[in-house]
């Protein structure tokens, strides 16, 4: 078994080191991570400049690019053979609901999935790395379980969110769906030293769909949330209405 490990917090992030340690003994490990924090970069690939690669003293390889760059380059140019699993994280902060569309952590795992490799994204619910060792134990347990008993024969993609608790490894686990958030808070306007306006993206909105069965609900109830994801963004339920619209019928 070859396991490719990536993240979006950068190659120096404690969460990456914890995930690597959690995977030790499960197979041959390859670590490729961004040079700097690349949170919120989603599935972006760097196409407007070449990428430079480096090797850290601990053997981790890193790129001056995005999480998707890291997995893409590893799968298409670096690894001598295809890995059996791609894992990403452990992220500092949750990736639930709409956040998954922006998440570099999820994107790194998704890049592996797009290449037909099973993949898992791991995140802690709160920032600050509290009880990271317990989250790593959860990651290890889930990885061992899917390797011993894969959920399907083909590629699959899981998004795992772990409460920051010392007993995280003993918490119940729930297979969930994505919740939804309210719109983000307004942009934060400031002024730079030259008197010019600058802007910070505001914090994410609160959960607006966080009922039973969602990732928000599971983690709020002290459970580890495991959400199977897919790439197909097609609104299948609306296809008939749009087809009627295209044919000259009523609005969808």
How would you characterize this protein structure?
There is one protein chain. Helix content is 25%, strand content 23%. It is built from 6 helices and 13 strands. It has helices spanning 14-23, 67-78, 104-114, 132-148, 215-220, 239-246; strands spanning 2-6, 28-34, 53-55, 61-63, 85-91, 119-124, 157-162, 173-175, 180-181, 188-191, 197-200, 207-209, 224-229. Strands 3-4-2-1-5-6-7-13-8 form a 9-stranded mixed beta sheet, with helices on both faces. The protein has a two-stranded antiparallel ribbon with strand order 9-12. It has a two-stranded antiparallel ribbon with strand order 10-11. Helix 1 (14-23) runs parallel beside helix 4 and helix 2 runs parallel beside helix 3. The longest helix is centred in the middle third of the chain and has 17 residues, at 132-148. The radius of gyration is 19 Å and the shape is globular. The model has no long low-confidence stretch (mean pLDDT 93).
């Amino acid at each position: 078994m070859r396991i490719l490990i990536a993240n979006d917090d950068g190659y120096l992030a404690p969460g990456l080191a914890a995930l690597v340690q959690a995977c030790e003994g499960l197979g041959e490990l390859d670590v490729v991570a961004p040079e700097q924090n690349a949170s919120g970069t989603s599935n972006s690939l760097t196409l407007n400049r070449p990428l430079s690669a480096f090797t850290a003293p601990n053997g981790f390889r890193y790129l001056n690019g995005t999480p998707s760059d890291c997995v893409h380059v590893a799968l298409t140019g670096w690894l001598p053979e295809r890995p059996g699993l791609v894992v990403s994280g452990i992220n500092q902060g949750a990736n639930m609901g709409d956040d998954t569309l922006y998440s570099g952590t999820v994107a790194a795992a998704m890049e592996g999935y797009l290449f037909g490799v099973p993949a898992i994204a791991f995140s802690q619910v709160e920032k600050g790395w509290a009880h990271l060792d317990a989250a790593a134990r959860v990651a290890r347990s889930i990885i061992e379980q899917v390797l011993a008993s894969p959920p399907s024969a083909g590629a699959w993609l899981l998004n795992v969110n772990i409460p920051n608790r010392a007993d995280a490894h003993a918490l119940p686990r729930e297979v969930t769906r994505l919740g939804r958030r309210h719109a983000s808070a307004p942009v934060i306007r400031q002024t730079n030293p030259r008197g010019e306006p600058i802007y910070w993206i505001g914090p994410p909105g609160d959960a607006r769909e966080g009922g039973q069965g969602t990732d928000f609900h599971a983690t709020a109830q002290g459970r580890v949330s495991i959400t199977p994801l897919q790439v197909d963004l097609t609104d299948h339920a609306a296809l008939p209405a749009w087809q009627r619209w295209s044919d000259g019928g009523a609005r969808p």
